[in-house]
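Good day; I would like, with your permission, to put a structural problem before you. What I wish to show you is a protein chain and, alongside it, a tokenised description of its three-dimensional fold. I would ask you to consider whether the tokens describe a fold that such a sequence might reasonably adopt. You will find the record immediately after this paragraph:
***
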Amino acid sequence: MTDINEALGQVLVKYRTLAKISQEELADRAGIHRTYVSQIERGLKSPTLSVLFQISRALNTTASVLIAEVEQALIK
């Protein structure tokens, strides 16, 4: 079973890669620091709900889509 933070990190990397943007660009769009994006993607930090919504908007998706993918990763 994958850790929730690790699963979220993997999902964010996937969506950021699909959007063809860097961590720095994602951070800028979401209004957060680049190192925080890096820590979330590596599973070291867990974002607050409001930050998750900021990130999802920056990735042109919804928080519920991201969370659904995290749930699927945890089931595997």
About this structure: Residues 4-75 form a domain with the 434 Repressor (Amino-terminal Domain) fold (CATH 1.10.260.40). The chain has a mean pLDDT of 96.
